[in-house]
Write a structure and sequence with these properties.
Chain lengths: 312, 78
């Protein structure tokens, strides 16, 4: 299809047009939404094994239930996004079972081990909030009707995940002593991890069409600000240190460390002292994937072959 | 898992409200489609939920979209 068709569709979308079926998509629109939904589906899917391994650290049966309820939600969210892709002619089967672990498109944060209860609840407080910022924006703005409707459920449940994170962060912060120290260590690696998740700053961002086709409404930097506008006050209110502050004059949140910078996944430590690095170096690190990538992918599909062979 | 078909999921929040299309699941048969739908769309305490094989939905006035494919006889229940 021609460039003119793309421009016409963008024009109609600008005046509020909602697409209801894949047949209405131009090649450019289709390409952009497939990338967006693949990232969305992979992120939901990979959050499940990350949370699942961490749920072993739940301190009671009640917390086991709430942790597993979150995992169950994430798998449903993944399934919903893959199903939308399937209707666009993209094979869910191939996406879930046919790729190498490093080919999944989830953020680097979900390649990291969550080693204790505090890390799980901070993941809920930080990563799930990032999910709400990103998907809430898609929900409000997307020009694709089926996705807009699917996100009603997702947003509702993500809010529960976030609340779970916040309530537990508060409990650990109030406890003082070892609990609070551990919580601070989580914040130290997971805050910059989430900041990086939102991707390239706007002034470096290559043009992707996501905004023109109204697949989302806010830019990367706006989403990063949105995330900080609730996360920074939350942490400060709990007496936790975060490497960012509100700049009254600039009327925005400002990072207090070189961004982007290098990360040591084994030590769970950001190398602030080594200074700013290039985004190419960040992309290389993301591409190389993190320590849990293969284990997480393996854990969601290990029994596939065996069970299929029984059924054949 | 093998030979899965698409099922459309409809649900009503409470008495007096409309039955809405809320999503879809893939399932190898009606019984598992019921289970998958109930477990996947558990965000509300639904008053009523039902599943319909995609191939059974006959569009009346539109030929595009997943249901339109039934009319065009392209790929059955997808
Ligand atoms: Fe989710
Ligand atoms: Fe979540």
């Amino acid at each position: 299809m021609s460039q003119r068709a793309e421009e016409q569709l963008k024009e109609r979308i600008r005046s509020g047009y909602i697409l209801e079926s894949p047949e209405e998509m131009t090649p450019g629109y289709r390409r952009a939404i497939i990338i967006q939904l693949t990232v969305q589906a992979d992120t939901e899917l990979m959050s499940a094994p990350a949370y699942w391994l961490a749920a072993r650290h739940a301190p009671s049966t009640n917390t086991q239930v709430s942790a597993h309820a979150i995992i169950q939600d994430e798998l449903a969210h993944a399934n919903i996004a893959y199903r939308l892709l399937e209707d666009m002619g993209v094979s869910k089967e191939k996406l879930v079972y046919g790729r190498e672990p490093h080919e999944f498109k989830h953020p680097y944060g979900f390649d990291q081990p969550l080693d204790n209860w505090a890390e799980l609840v901070v993941a809920n407080g930080f990563f799930d909030r990032a999910g709400i910022c990103l998907l809430g924006d898609v929900h409000r703005n997307t020009s694709y009707g089926p996705l807009k409707r699917a996100l009603v459920k997702v947003d509702m449940e993500e809010t529960f995940h976030l609340r779970h994170g916040e309530v537990w962060m508060r409990r650990l912060a109030r406890a003082g002593g070892a609990a609070t120290e551990l919580l601070q260590r989580c914040v130290d690696w997971m805050f910059p991890m989430t900041i990086e998740w939102f991707g390239l700053p706007d002034d470096l961002k290559r043009h992707s069409g996501q905004l023109d086709y109204k697949l989302k409404g806010l830019t990367n930097d706006e989403l990063r600000q949105l995330w900080m506008s609730s996360t920074v006050p939350l942490c400060e209110g709990l007496g936790l240190k975060v490497p960012a502050h509100y700049d009254e004059a600039a009327e925005e949140y400002v990072l207090d460390y070189p961004f982007p910078c290098e990360y040591d996944p084994d030590a769970k430590h950001w190398l602030f002292d080594d200074g700013e690095i290039s985004w190419d170096a960040v992309f290389a690190r993301w591409k190389g994937r993190g320590p849990m990538n293969e284990r997480y992918v393996e854990s969601v599909r290990r029994s596939r072959g065996t069970v299929s062979s029984w059924l054949n | 898992m093998i030979g899965e078909g698409v099922y459309e999921v409809f649900a009503r929040k409470k008495r007096g409200e409309p039955l809405r299309h809320i999503g879809y699941v893939d399932a190898p048969g009606d019984e598992l489609a019921r289970v998958y739908a109930w477990k996947t769309y558990d965000e509300e305490k639904w008053f009523e939920m039902c599943v319909v094989p995609r191939g059974a939905v006959i569009p009346v006035n539109r030929d595009d979209g997943p249901w339109g494919r039934n009319r065009r006889g392209r790929e059955g229940d997808g």
